[in-house]
Write a structure and sequence with these properties.
- It is a single chain.
- By secondary structure, the protein is an alpha+beta fold.
- The protein folds into two domains: 30 residues; 165 residues, Glutaredoxin (3-Layer(aba) Sandwich), CATH 3.40.30.10.
- It has six helices and ten strands, in the order H-H-E-E-E-E-H-E-H-E-H-E-E-E-E-H.
- The longest helix has 18 residues.
- 34% of the residues are buried.
């Protein structure tokens, strides 16, 4: 008789440890990254693409996807925006918005933001703020951005986080979408979040 069979308490501990490890590997209900309870509620005050003040209260009652980027971004931002627009459409959810927060207020005027966001979806709203306000907001959500040194023509690149943050209708953080997440997985998670 093996030692394991003769000690049922050891079996229970072993099974408990395996269950604990498996639960740690899972993303809960999410096909992407669940972040419930890991980040603070959605809170901000920005200048929208219409030139008006925009705050988190304007989005209450609808789930919101937040992405930090800039309109001159050559690859990450347009790819992310196309993917999230497709996921929003595929989710079939009506009470869902996307907030594109520009971390390049020097170049991204309200008019420029409006042209950029309208290209992707009428559910996308562009907004920006002072660099100090943007730094406080990105710090709140553990995102980053920074400016490269301008070239001889005054052009510069902006390095920034590539994740998208999903908040429910009450403004609570629910999921984190990363570049490797499929549009289908994002759409399924958006549907789940809006149905809660």
């Amino acid at each position: 008789m093996s030692k394991l069979k003769s000690r049922p308490w050891l079996q229970r501990i072993g099974m408990g440890l395996i269950a604990l490890m498996l639960s740690a590997c899972g993303g809960g209900d999410y096909q992407t990254k669940g972040i419930e309870g890991l980040l603070p509620a959605l809170e901000f005050e920005l200048i929208s693409e219409t030139g008006q003040t925009l705050s988190a209260s304007d989005f209450r009652g609808s789930a919101t996807v937040v992405f930090f980027g800039f309109t001159n971004c050559p690859d990450v931002c347009p790819t992310a925006m196309a993917r999230i627009a497709a996921a929003v459409e595929a989710s079939g959810a009506d009470d869902l918005n996307v907030l594109f927060v520009s971390v390049d207020p020097g170049r991204d005027t309200p008019a420029r933001l409006a042209r950029y966001t309208n290209f992707f979806s009428d559910r996308v709203t562009g907004a920006t703020a002072s660099v100090a306000t943007l730094k406080a907001m990105t710090k709140r959500y553990r995102a980053t951005f920074g400016y490269d040194r301008p070239n001889a023509f005054g052009d510069y690149n902006v390095s920034h986080s590539s994740a998208m943050y999903v908040f429910d209708a009450k403004g609570n953080a629910r999921a984190l979408f990363r570049p490797a997440d499929s549009v289908t997985a994002m759409a399924n998670d958006l549907r789940r979040i809006t149905e809660r």
